[in-house]
């Protein structure tokens, strides 16, 4: 019953967001016409727009709402509405029209926002990761946005068992006719749309997987990093319980910072990195001893 109620609530939220998006589009169009513009302003999907707002806030110590609205080409009212949602998620804070960051890393962003970042790179990495999955495998996959697109690539792999803490992955595979879904339980964290905590970690310790595919918030030196304790603990458990461990790294991970080391690079058997990654970063990954595969990104003529 609780799961049904949650699903109904999520469906209501999606419907509300669609209605809100339509209302915003009409409001922006009217605002553009009143300002004497010939065409309505550029439309940006709500998740993408909120992602851009967070990026702008994280890039500096503070920014004014009017400045954000001007940079995005939307009304101040729209930005205020987005800010209320981002404040509720604990990502930013507002004081007298000025926005300041609260999240220390993009790892703490909701999955809907994280998925809008580097989508082509993540799609390429996910296709490469899916090619490593064989029929009969038990696949462990976390809730990292870099790994999420691979779920759609698994339809042809049968039979397959997928163990995950991600509600996003769970919703997709719940409709699958070929994959068996094992959902890791525990403490549900709304900002991640996933399960974490001691119960989730204990569950994973009772599972044995053939393959684990994951990403992390940042790559630095000889390891991968994350700012959230419970996330680090669950990722470590997933690695311990898997025979083969695959890390997905898009080129933006080298620009980010997180204070807590999840695992050394040598903990992974294979590291997939997108073709837009600088050569020095590829060399850094190879120094850990893992197999490093540079994956071309659609539309690029060459990789590293």
TrEMBL record:
<keyword id="KW-0805">Transcription regulation</keyword>
<feature type="compositionally biased region" description="Basic and acidic residues">
    <location>
        <begin position="1"/>
        <end position="28"/>
    </location>
</feature>
<dbReference type="Pfam" id="PF08220">
    <property type="entry name" value="HTH_DeoR"/>
</dbReference>
<feature type="region of interest" description="Disordered">
    <location>
        <begin position="1"/>
        <end position="46"/>
    </location>
</feature>
<dbReference type="InterPro" id="IPR001034">
    <property type="entry name" value="DeoR_HTH"/>
</dbReference>
<protein>
    <recommendedName>
        <fullName>HTH deoR-type domain-containing protein</fullName>
    </recommendedName>
</protein>
<dbReference type="InterPro" id="IPR036390">
    <property type="entry name" value="WH_DNA-bd_sf"/>
</dbReference>
<dbReference type="InterPro" id="IPR050313">
    <property type="entry name" value="Carb_Metab_HTH_regulators"/>
</dbReference>
<keyword id="KW-0804">Transcription</keyword>
<dbReference type="InterPro" id="IPR014036">
    <property type="entry name" value="DeoR-like_C"/>
</dbReference>
<dbReference type="GO" id="GO:0003700">
    <property type="term" value="F:DNA-binding transcription factor activity"/>
</dbReference>
<dbReference type="InterPro" id="IPR037171">
    <property type="entry name" value="NagB/RpiA_transferase-like"/>
</dbReference>
<dbReference type="Pfam" id="PF00455">
    <property type="entry name" value="DeoRC"/>
</dbReference>
<dbReference type="InterPro" id="IPR036388">
    <property type="entry name" value="WH-like_DNA-bd_sf"/>
</dbReference>
<feature type="domain" description="HTH deoR-type">
    <location>
        <begin position="46"/>
        <end position="101"/>
    </location>
</feature>
């Amino acid at each position: 019953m609780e799961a049904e109620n949650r699903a109904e609530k999520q469906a209501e939220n999606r419907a509300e967001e669609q209605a809100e998006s339509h209302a915003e589009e009409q409001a922006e169009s009217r605002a553009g016409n009143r300002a004497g513009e010939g065409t309505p302003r550029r439309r940006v999907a709500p998740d993408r727009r909120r992602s851009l707002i967070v990026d702008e806030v994280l890039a500096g110590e503070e920014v004014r709402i009017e400045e954000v609205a001007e940079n995005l080409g939307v009304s101040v009212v729209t930005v205020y509405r987005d800010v209320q949602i981002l404040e509720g998620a604990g990502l930013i804070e507002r004081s007298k029209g000025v926005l300041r960051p609260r999240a220390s890393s993009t790892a703490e962003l909701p999955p809907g926002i994280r998925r809008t970042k580097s989508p082509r790179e993540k799609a390429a990495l996910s296709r490469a990761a899916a090619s490593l999955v064989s029929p009969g495998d038990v696949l462990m996959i976390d809730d990292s946005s870099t790994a999420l697109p691979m779920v759609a690539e698994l339809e042809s792999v049968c039979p397959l068992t997928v163990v995950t803490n991600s509600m996003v992955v769970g919703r997709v595979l719940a409709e699958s006719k070929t994959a068996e879904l094992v959902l890791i339980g525990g403490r549900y964290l709304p900002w991640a749309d996933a399960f974490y905590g001691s119960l989730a970690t204990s569950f994973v310790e009772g599972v044995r997987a053939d393959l684990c595919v994951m990403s992390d918030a940042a790559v630095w030196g000889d390891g991968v990093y994350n700012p959230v304790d419970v996330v680090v603990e669950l990722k470590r458990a997933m690695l311990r319980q898997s025979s083969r461990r695959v890390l997905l790294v898009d080129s933006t991970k080298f620009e980010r910072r997180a204070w807590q080391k999840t695992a050394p690079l040598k903990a992974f058997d294979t590291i997939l990195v997108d073709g837009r990654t600088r050569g020095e970063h590829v060399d850094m990954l190879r120094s850990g001893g893992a197999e490093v595969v540079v994956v071309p990104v659609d539309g690029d003529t060459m990789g590293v």
